Structures are given as C-alpha cells and as structure tokens.
Write a sequence for this structure.
C-alpha cells in the first residue's frame, strides 16, 4: 500500500465521519421539532422527569444553531421555520462534500 492510498483512505474516513455527524444532527433536529409539537399540544406529560430531560437535551443541542437563524428570519407569527433552514443548509453541505470536495481531494 502506498502512502498516497493510505492518505486517501484516511481522508475518506474523515469525510464519512463528517457526513455521519451531519446526518445524526439532521435526525436530532427532526426529533426536536416533533418533540416540541408533542409538548405544545400536551400529548406528552411535561411533568415527567424523562420528558423534561429529553426536552433539555434537544434544546441544548439545537438552540445554539437555531438561535442565530431565528434572529435573521422575519417574524412569521407562531411558525418557526428555522429548523427547515438548518436542514437545507445541512443538505447543501452534504451535497457539496460528496460532489465537489471529495472528488477534488481523492
């Protein structure tokens, strides 16, 4: 195995790890949105300790990304489209990664 091939394997592993992290964050955003709907409509018990912990986890993981986008977006009343904007950005980054960056590096 040549040094070049080992470097390519390492870079591919790095790109796949980045892609996996973005994919996991996508699912966390979707789960957070569903959780917020269930919480808002009192479908889940807000007094339950597990539900509270889950809500805190989702808030702590997603809010640092969503807050700057919410500041830029106009007020749409009760509709929050910031998760959709973040999902579109993640989709763009993943497509850019696999169609432009990976072929250029490897």
């Amino acid at each position: 195995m040549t040094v070049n091939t080992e470097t390519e394997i390492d870079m591919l592993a790095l790109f796949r790890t980045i892609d996996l992290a973005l994919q996991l964050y996508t699912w966390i955003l979707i789960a957070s949105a569903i959780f917020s709907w269930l919480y808002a409509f009192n479908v889940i018990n807000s007094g339950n300790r597990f539900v509270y912990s889950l809500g805190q986890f989702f808030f702590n993981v997603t809010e640092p990304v969503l807050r700057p986008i919410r500041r830029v977006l106009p007020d749409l009343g009760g509709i929050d489209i910031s998760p959709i904007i973040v999902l579109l950005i993640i989709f763009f980054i993943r497509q850019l990664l696999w169609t432009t960056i990976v072929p250029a590096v490897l």
Q: What stands out?
A: The mean pLDDT is 92. Helices lie at 3-40, 49-72, 82-105.
